[in-house]
Amino acid sequence: MPWFLFSAGVEIHEIDGFTVRIYSPEKTLADCFKFRNRVGLDTAIEAIRFYRERKQVDAESLMHYAGICRVKKIIRPYLEALL
């Protein structure tokens, strides 16, 4: 797997005085669809529902990470139906 798949979407946060690296919600959602055969399609669909409920939907960023993870064609119908 190319190294940029692991570094894309990483956000740096400060938690209890420690610096931690956490994937953005959009990258996490793209990963759910990339690994849908392992985690289950129902889990990926539930993740997109939770993402919609956040009220901070960034469809452009989500499609950017979906392109990196090569799931753009797969995630688009679910995104259009739920958003």
The structural domain count equals 1
Order of helices and strands: HEEHHHHH
Termini separation: 31 Å
Mean pLDDT, as a whole number?
Answer: 88
Low-confidence stretches: none
Specify Rg, calculated over alpha carbons. Answer: 13 Å
Strand order of the largest sheet: 1-2
β-strand number:
2
**Major β-sheet, in short?**
2 strands, antiparallel
Structural class comes to alpha+beta
Helix content: 55-70%
Question: Which of globular, elongated, flat, extended, rod-shaped describes the shape?
Answer: globular
How much of the polypeptide forms β-strand, as a percent range? 5-15%
Number of helices, counting only DSSP H or I runs of 4 residues or more: 6
Secondary structure blueprint with pairings:
Layout: H1 4-7, E1 10-15, E2 18-23, H2 25-34, H3 36-39, H4 41-53, H5 59-68, H6 72-82
Antiparallel strand pairs: 1-2
Helix pairs in contact: 2-4, 2-5, 5-6
